[in-house]
Design goal:
2 domains, extended, transmembrane, cell membrane, DoxX, transmembrane helix, mainly alpha, 72% helix, DoxX-like_oxidoreductase
Length: 206
């Protein structure tokens, strides 16, 4: 009987906690949105400021991505990332723009990052280290020797250690997973335009 009362009491406390936390469930979506906004804004503005270079990179078959209709593809990628940053910041049409950004991420993963494996930063000691990453260890060590012998190594590394950019799918996959979460969560309770538009629509309907 005592155990039953304890279980009942714990259940009640848990339900009360869930009721309180329900009003804060929009925080997770807000955090995801705030994290992704500067990423897509920087990606979009960089493409826009170097738009002709972006078009050439998209279309070139020798040193680029060899994508069809490069001008159209560059326009779609740039506009999606810029609009995505703005809409995510507002929490407006969150699920729709997340789907469009997921398509952008998938294109980036399969055309740019996948040949380099998983890691964004080459680390031979990390899981999923492919041959390209393993080969980077010797190159990085040689670069350090050159800098130590012919440069002010302490000053050069005062802002952080030197690394080799592997440009794998790690970051793009992280953003993809976050966008999938936003499709489920939406813009978030109280902290998105989507929420207040929904409240206004429901108020007029009922």
């Amino acid at each position: 009987m005592i155990m039953k009362n304890i279980i009942y009491s714990l259940t009640q406390h848990y339900q009360n906690m869930c009721t309180v936390l329900k009003h804060a469930d929009g925080i997770a979506a807000l955090v995801l949105r705030c994290y992704l906004v500067p990423i897509f804004w920087m990606a979009g503005t960089n493409k826009l400021m170097h738009f002709q270079d972006t078009v050439e990179w998209f279309g070139n078959s020798d040193w680029g991505l060899a994508l069809p209709f490069p001008y159209l593809m560059a326009t779609l990628a740039t506009s999606t990332e810029l609009a995505g940053a703005i809409l995510l910041a507002l929490g407006l049409f969150t699920r729709l723009i997340s789907i469009l950004l997921i398509i952008t991420m998938l294109v980036a993963i399969f055309t740019v990052h996948l040949p380099n494996g998983w890691q964004a930063i080459a680390d031979p000691n990390a899981p999923f280290a492919n041959a390209q990453v393993l080969a980077s260890a010797e190159k990085l060590e040689k670069a350090r020797e050159i800098l130590e012998n012919y440069g002010n190594y302490d000053w050069l590394t005062s802002s952080g250690s030197f690394v080799i950019l592997n440009n794998g799918i790690e970051f793009a996959m992280t953003y993809l997973i976050m966008l999938i979460a936003l499709i489920v969560l939406g813009g978030g309770r109280y902290c998105s335009v989507d929420f207040w538009l929904k409240q206004k629509v429901l108020k007029h309907l009922f």
